[in-house]
Amino acid sequence: MLSWIYFLSKGAYGYLNLxxxxxxxxx
Length: 27
Hints:
Elements: H1 2-26
């Protein structure tokens, strides 16, 4: 049960990090 929560949070963190990189690259 904890594995899918970990996977979800890791995926969300990676997605936010990707968006941050896109935003800083466009500035």
